[in-house]
Amino acid sequence: MHSNFRNTHSAQELHDPESAVTQLRTSNPALLLALQNEGHLFKRRSLTSADLLALRQRDLCGILGVPATESSVRIFKKLNGADSTPEAVSTLTELLRSEAEKHSLTHLPQLNTATLEILCTPSLRALTNHRFLTEISALDSARSARQHVRRLKNFAAKATRNRLIGPWAQPLQSISELDARITEFRECERVDFPSPPLDLPLPFHPIQSIQDLLIEARTQRSCVAAHIGSVLDGKSFIYRLSAPERATVALRYLDEQWLVEEIKGPKNRTVDWRTEEYVHLMVEAAVSGSGECFPIPRIGEPEIVNYSTEPFRDPAPKLPAMFEPLSSPRMLSKRGHLPDRELPLFIENIHRKLLYAYRFETPFEGTLLVNSLSPDGSPEYDGIYMADPDFDISMDIYLSIKTLAGL
């Protein structure tokens, strides 16, 4: 049977606004309030009392901009009593217009303000399923329902702030499960992690409790809290890195040794390559037990200041005059045309007498690298880097430069 007012009405009823309003208030108070919220009743170019009595309720839903269906009518009827407030009805109307929660609104046996607040708040909706919503909507006490939603909001805020994922972020099925998860989280915050597996010096700071890890996740706005379980199991360990840049370092125990799993800056961004290289060197030294400590690189400044300006100690092997030796890191970084990422390695190898660099301008401008790895120590060709990175070195040019260098 359709919800409508197509009964026989007296002429007095058709012109009596109060009579029409009373009938709609009795049969579907939330729908009446929605029409009032939208300004559709008894104003110029709006519904008259005759319209209100003559139209089906689903047609009134259509006037509100929600689906003109019997389902919409039944959903409005689910919101009743003290929960049928202008704010709650406005929220319900918007949900019906968007059809975002059509399935939930259709299948919940009744609605209240607490349920609607969850449905229209993405962070709360992500933490709840249909069974939880059904339990909240069935609560007789509006105060009790609001208290549970307040606790849910506090937990959702904590989950978002600490980037909690995995079991912590699974949808709740009941109010008792919410209670249990809040209690478990409070207890876990006080749990300490196993001792640090590697004795890494400053600027490495071991994260030694769940609470510290949650603070790190919140500070870095990252998802590092996902490692809680693996750290407790002894499969991972987390360090806070304070230099050369702020980062979080995750180690993983694999094949009976500790390895660098990931290094992430704020918001999970990639760190500078010099930071990555420094972390790997320090971890490898700690694993090997060598105790070697590497200098903290300086980043965020012009490349030239990142390396020692001390001249290379041994003179480069003599080549024809057209090949000018690059005798210091400063000259190498300014005139060497070498990739920034590989420059530290080149400098280190030159200091170790494994490599030499020369600048040339004929037949094209570039840098020639030679090594001293031959059995007799004589210079051997190692590589060519052109001043123009888009320049394609042909075999003829390659052989020509090698011949001119006497290699």
Explain the layout of strands and helices:
Elements: H1 11-14, H2 17-27, H3 29-37, H4 49-54, H5 57-63, H6 70-77, H7 86-98, H8 102-107, H9 113-119, H10 122-125, H11 130-137, H12 142-161, H13 175-189, E1 204-206, H14 210-220, H15 228-232, E2 236-241, E3 247-254, E4 257-264, H16 273-288, E5 324-325, H17 329-335, H18 343-351, E6 355-360, E7 366-371, E8 380-386, H19 395-405
Antiparallel strand pairs: 1-2, 2-3, 3-4, 5-6, 6-7, 7-8
Helix pairs in contact: 2-3, 3-7, 7-9, 9-11, 9-12
Main pleated sheet: 4 strands, antiparallel
Count the beta strands.
8
Shape: elongated
Structural class: alpha+beta
How many individual helices? 19
Mean pLDDT: 81
Distance between the termini: 98 Å
Question: Number of domains in the coordinates?
Answer: 3
Strand % is 5-15%
Widest beta sheet: strand line-up: 1-2-3-4
State the helicity in percent bands: 40-55%
Radius of gyration over all CA atoms, rounded: 36 Å
| H and E order | HHHHHHHHHHHHHEHHEEEHEHHEEEH
Poorly predicted segments: 1-15, 301-307
Sum this structure up briefly.
Helices cover 43% and strands 11% of the residues. The protein contains 19 helices and 8 strands.
3D architecture notes:
This protein is α+β, with helices and mostly antiparallel strands. The protein is elongated and about 110 Å long. The model is unreliable at 1-15 and 301-307 (pLDDT under 50). The protein contains 19 helices and eight strands. The strands form two sheets. Strands 1-2-3-4 form a four-stranded antiparallel beta sheet. Strands 5-6-7-8 form a four-stranded antiparallel beta sheet. The chain folds into three domains: 11-182, no CATH class; 204-288, no CATH class; 303-405, no CATH class. Helix 2 (17-27) crosses helix 3, helix 7 (86-98) runs parallel beside helix 9 and helix 9 (113-119) runs parallel beside helix 12 (142-161). A hairpin with an 8-residue loop joins strand 7 and strand 8.
